Amino acid sequence: MEGIIMKKKRTIIFRMAALGIFILLLVLLASWYSVVYNEARLVVPMDFSEYEFRIRDLPMIIAVSFVCLYGWSLLFLILREKLRTDRAVHAQHVTRTLHPKLGFLGFLGFLGFLGFWTYQIDKSVYPFTFFLFFGFFGFYYEGKMSNTYMDERFLENKNKATLKAYRISQAIIFAALLVAGQGRLMDRAEYTLAAFMIVVALSMALWMFLSEYLLYRYDHDALPDGMSESEE
Fold first, then answer.
1. Distance (Å) of CA 25 to CA 63, 205, 224
2. Beta pairing partners, 188
3. Measuring CA to CA, how many Å separate 114 from each of 118, 201, 211?
4. How many alpha carbons lie under 13 Å from residue 143 in its C-beta half-sphere?
5. Beta carbons of 128 and 74 less than 8 angstroms apart
6. pTM for the structure as a whole
7. Which long-range contacts (CB under 8 A, 24 or more apart) does 188-194 make?
């Protein structure tokens, strides 16, 4: 039964990776089409106060829409799998099995830089939320602690790591809120909103990453001298 579940997980990961490559190629193709046949519309910054829809704009609009849908679909699948495995983990009193290479999903956080492009196009700031994906770098450290027995010491370290990461991220958000509440950033209210969204997304990503990194460091440093994690 476990082998079937793992096989299904690998199939889903392979399909999502293939879909991501396909969407990347779609964006590159749409950008090339826009530059060559559509005066680079929706690729270079343009004044949307005078924007008029053209049928040739569709490839670029569709490509960007696919990028956004893919990002949120991936986030949904990861969160759903996390909730599912957390239930099984608590029942077995061991940490879930996770491959450290899943930490490479953190590179999806670079999708957040699309926000600077979409803002110039249509003042959209929602892509900045993709900076949350930087938190997935924490999967690397969580994967290195797969199948660790959750004794009292481990649970104490886990609570300490989560609390410290939470305090750091909340302090950053609080400071950003104080700065944003002083008034408009560079005399533009939309700049203030965009900057605040970036800070919040990065702070939440930092919390996700630090909670796993600090737990790994606390648990690793707590091992007696000469004892490896595998021996524990």
1. 9, 27, 50
2. 185
3. 6, 14, 27
4. 13
5. no
6. 0.59
7. 190/119, 190/123, 190/125, 193/125, 194/115, 194/119, 194/125, 194/128
- The pLDDT tens digits of the residues spanning 87-96 come to 665 666 777 7
- The pLDDT of residue 4: 64
Tell me, letter by letter, the H, E, C secondary structure of 53-110.
Answer: CCHHHHHHHHHHHHHHHHHHHHHHHHHHHHHHHHHHHHHHCECCCCCHHHHHHHHHHH
Q: Kindly state the tokens that stand for 88.
A: 């099984």
147 torsion bin: left (phi>0), alpha (psi -120 to 50), beta (else): left
Query: pLDDT for 128-186, tens place per residue?
Result: 888 989 999 999 998 888 878 878 888 888 899 999 999 999 999 888 888 777 665 55
**How many residues comprise the chain?**
232
Instruction: List the chain residues with pLDDT less than 50.
Output: 223-232
Question: 131 is written with which tokens?
Answer: 């900076």
* 3-class SS of residue 39: coil
Residue burial 151-187, b: 16+ Cβ < 10 Å; e: rest: eeebeebbeebbebbeebbeebbeebeeeeeeeebee
